[in-house]
Amino acid sequence: MEEKNIETIMQLIVYGGNGKSCSMEAIRAAKSGDFKLADEKIKEAEESLLQAHHAQTEMLTGEANGEKVELSLLMIHAQDHLMTGTAFKDLAKEIIDLYRVK
């Protein structure tokens, strides 16, 4: 596997995982009534997931331009991190809204 692809895959894992972690921290903050912190953590999650999305887009663009991208377990794992991070962020926003109304 090319070094460039490994670097991009690691970015997906790191930024996707960070997005999920920040989303969980946001839920915990909202649960304790700290909505300012919850909003900050959601913003951090969104920034991390945007970085992951940029890394993914770079790889997709390369493949669309004819660059061969090797499908591997590591690649699947990275995509899973991005998907999970995005889903957690979306769900966290809904949960925070519920705590706000409470």
Quick one: biggest sheet?
none
- End-to-end separation in angstroms reads 50 Å
- Look at the structure and give the mean pLDDT: 94
Shape: elongated
Q: How do the helices and strands follow one another from N- to C-terminus? A: HHH
Number of contiguous helices: 3
Describe the structure.
This is PTS lactose/cellobiose transporter subunit IIA. It comes from Faecalicatena acetigenes. This protein has 102 residues and is mainly alpha-helical. It is built from 3 helices and no strands. It has helices at residues 3-31, 35-64, 73-101. The longest helix is centred in the middle third of the chain and has 30 residues, at 35-64. The N and C termini lie far apart (50 Å). The mean pLDDT is 94.
Which features would summarize this protein structure in a list?
102 residues; mainly alpha; 3 helices; 86% helix; PTS_IIA_lac/cel; PTS_IIA_lac/cel_sf; transferase
Question: How would you concisely characterize the structure shown here?
Answer:
The modification Phosphohistidine is found at residue 77. The protein is mainly α and 102 residues long.
What's the helix and strand layout?
Blueprint: H1 3-31, H2 35-64, H3 73-101
